[in-house]
Amino acid sequence: MRPKPCLTTAAPMAAALLATLTFASCGAGSGAPDAADGDAASTDVPSQAPCTVLFGLPNEKTGLDDTQCRPECDCAGRRFVPPVYDEARITALEARVPETPMTAPDADPYATPDAHVPQPDKVCGVLPGTTPVGYRLATYDDADAAEAAGAKVTHEGACGLCSTLQDLAVYMRHPDLTDPVRWCGMLGMTQGDEEMTACLLELGFTVPCAAIWAFNTKHTASKCQAICLDLLEAPYHEADGGLNACLQCDEDESGAVFKAVAGRTRRNTGLPSSMCRPCTEVLAVVHEYP
What we know:
It is a single chain. This protein is an alpha/beta fold. The chain has one domain. Helix content is 32%, strand content 10%. The strands form three sheets. The protein has a four-stranded mixed beta sheet with strand order 5-7-6-8. The protein has a two-stranded parallel sheet with strand order 1-2. A two-stranded antiparallel ribbon has the order 3-4. Strand 3 and strand 4 form a beta hairpin. The protein is globular.
């Protein structure tokens, strides 16, 4: 039986070699569609203060406290306080069955980056399926078009390999995927790509979503290893709120292709994570589907 994805069982040298694999892409688009703001969980009058506090769920590895990062946005006339998704709601999402299943790529998308360009102006919507647990995914030009078609916006950007409700459930259950993905990367280095993918699948990802995470992990390792080796124990953020150099390298080198192929990320899905992001990059959406 494969050990539970956790860094604590790894040797220090192996951890250092895999430092870059910690930081899989978490990118989103440039901003949330205004039409989706009505989905915010709170109806309080929004603050007109500038957006200086980041959106996220800081932990001991984040490097920021709750005066710098918190799981809500209340600034620039926009208020979004996402609900806490409990295990019952997460399990219910996992039980949903996509009637438009994704297919894993048969080639590394990072080999042809120009063919994989994010579409941040579009949205991915969830449509009712032909059975009580079924659903369909479709890409729309904007939130208004999705609503007109009877779809519920699930994330900003075109639908992709991680747009399923099962993959959404993984993001909800793991607000910090750092250690689990790092461990999966270690397995890939020592035991091969199949073991890395199997490890990602054990986290709950669908096969297509696990595939793009694996490609992303390997690409970041090839581009950012020299930078990330020195930052193995560093906080995710600098004191000013910016990403550390390793995370920024991942964002710059791997982020665009990941966004284009995966579709769903945490910030374009309105989910706070241990890596904090500007409120202007967060989609205000509550995940309740018929």
